[in-house]
Amino acid sequence: MQLRIIHILCDNDASADKAEEAIKGCDNIINRWTQKNKDSHSLYLIVAEHRQELMDNLQEIAEQDKSIRVIIIPVDATFPKNYKEERQEEEQNQPNFFEIISREEMVEKVRNQAHLNGSYISLVIISAIVATIALVEGNLAILIGAMVITPLIGPNLSLALGTAIADTKLIKTSLFSGMSGAALTFITALLTGVMMGSSANKNLAATLIDYGFESLPVAACAGVAAAILLLQGTVSTLIGVMVAVAFLPPIAMTGLSLATGHYYQSLDAAMLFAINLVAFNLAAKSVLFIAGIRPRREDEENGHGRTISWYILGWAIAILALLVGLYFKSGNS
């Protein structure tokens, strides 16, 4: 059972009363205590899983009253267990397909990864250079090293989450960062190929840009795995490598092939990237939808939840278009 300490910091008694009202009726609170100082009033809660309703209530009052701040603190372990905690754990151990952290914790985990800053740009450029050299040399070990450091998982995963919860700001940030990262990878690979000159004009690894119907489940599995780990709050470097397999080599190969005059290979690599991009995002969004990740009640009432349907519909149409292209490609090969 995952426990969290929720610290509700209030500047005055009136705000503290609002916080008290917001937590009434929440049955996942294991313990609570208060601390009143000269300039603030703190309410501490120890809560178990399935705390999204509580978080929604707290977020609503925090947005209305700027003197309230909510701080979420993870708990690694507790001992000894009391009767109420054991009973809560028994209830939580009932069959549950997904282990889910709160919506707010997910947003915090992906927000920084989707932010376009100097670190993001630097890692994209470095990984693109390393990947391009690896493709020229045909060195798989170096290519894996490039996939370890590339930050391309962040924008795609945050895009899926942003549309799931109708967070317009997160969606815009993710789209801008993702498109910038892909464009920067392509340009870096292109310039690296041009700078290498004739030494880059080698027999490129055709297997890296060979694609067919089997390409869809590979990228889809990466999207499913990334979404499941996000639900658990354990997105790691290893899953980043798996996602990078779908994105980094095709983009780098597109730029490198164009630089060396292999125009058809460049188109094939671009097509593979499109297939992986669509399959990853549709699969990740589907997992979040099945897991019940939704916009807040207020956003759903304002119609923001419709963005989820449009999002899924858009990626589904893109998948159908790519399947048609794959059908004609396989028929002509």
Can you give a write-up of this model?
With 333 residues, the chain is α+β, with helices and mostly antiparallel strands. The protein has two domains: 3-96, ACT domain (Alpha-Beta Plaits, 2-Layer Sandwich), CATH 3.30.70; 105-332, Glycerol uptake facilitator protein, CATH 1.20.1080. Helix content is 64%, strand content 9%. It has helices spanning 13-22, 52-64, 83-92, 103-111, 118-137, 140-149, 153-164, 168-196, 215-232, 237-259, 263-290, 297-301, 306-332, and strands at 3-10, 29-36, 41-47, 68-75. A four-stranded antiparallel β-sheet has the order 2-3-1-4. Helix 5 packs across helix 8 (168-196) and helix 7 runs antiparallel to helix 8 (168-196). It is elongated, with a radius of gyration of 24 Å.
Radius of gyration: 24 Å
| Mean pLDDT across all amino acids | 78
Second-tier CATH architecture of the largest domain: Up-down Bundle
Overall shape: it is elongated
Poorly predicted sequence stretches spanning 5 or more consecutive residues: none
User: How many individual domains?
Assistant: 2
Fraction of residues in helix: 55-70%
What top-tier CATH class of the largest domain fits best?
Mainly Alpha
Number of DSSP helices?
Answer: 13
The ordered H/E elements are EHEEHEHHHHHHHHHHH
- Going by helix content, strand content and strand pairing, the class is alpha+beta
Count of beta strands: 4
Proportion of beta-strand residues: 5-15%
Biggest sheet character: 4 strands, antiparallel
Looking at CATH, which topology of the largest domain would you report? Answer: Glycerol uptake facilitator protein
Q: Strand order across the biggest sheet?
A: 2-3-1-4
The rounded distance between the terminal residues' Cα atoms is 53 Å
